[in-house]
Amino acid sequence: MSTHPIAEKLVRRMKREMNGKVVNLKSVIAGRATAEELQRTVVTKEDLGDFHPAHAAYVYTQNQVSVMCEQLTALDEMASFADMISKAEEFYMPSGPPMSPLTTSYFTCWAFFDACLEPNNETIGTTVSEVGAAFGMHPELLRLIGLMQASRMGLYILQGTDGKLVMLEDITTGDRCRAISPTGYRGKKGELWYARVLPPAIPGTSEHVVFTTPYVVLRPGVPEWLAYFSRTFAHDPRARVEDYEGHMKYGPTRAYWNDYVLDAYVNHRTEVIYLAGVPDVPESLPHSRLNEEPFGR
HSE (CB half, 13 Å, CA atoms) of 291? Predict the structure, then answer.
């Protein structure tokens, strides 16, 4: 049974309005003409031709979620999501530097898969999955949405490169992977990356995907970040990984990691964005309120 009340309400409403029939999802939500117009904004197979297959699968999936999000958030049941995302877009103006250090790929992943409503951590991603499953969405697309929904930003040590792939190690879980870095940035061994690393999209393959433009944390180093996590989490080591996963995905507040990126921004190149500082030490963040007050305090 679903634990997501918004999705349940949407499915009930849609089935009721269509006399309980399982019908074309696009027609149910917004009418065929509007839906087909939106579908033209989705990246095409031709557009994906130059992408690595694993990256292409996720780009297509994110675009499909975006189309459904546009349709679903027009419904009354989704008003809380629509209001939350609209206010965040207005505040952060996500587009990538120099306008904003929040890139479009970073922000949309947060908006679709991390920005949740309590108490059930319901997101646009969980809603799209449940509505899609109820109205015949292809199982492979549902699987990929599920992988993106389960993902989160993390902190990774760059262990080196393997051909065109980067070798990353999560600083808390110790998990290692070989990943595609679609921006082309491969960095220097020992760098600390803040990134959303998605698991292999294609069964039987091993390449992960760095889905966001890499944020490289120039300072502080790994010891200071581990100290930050020690301050933040319970001391029970058995709960540490679970605490880390939840903290990196949801933060103590919805805006926590968005504000971190905003306050920590230092500089950028086309393929990489540079940050500095840890979230709970305002003086370490270049654009924190403390550092931007005249003469400090």
Answer: 13
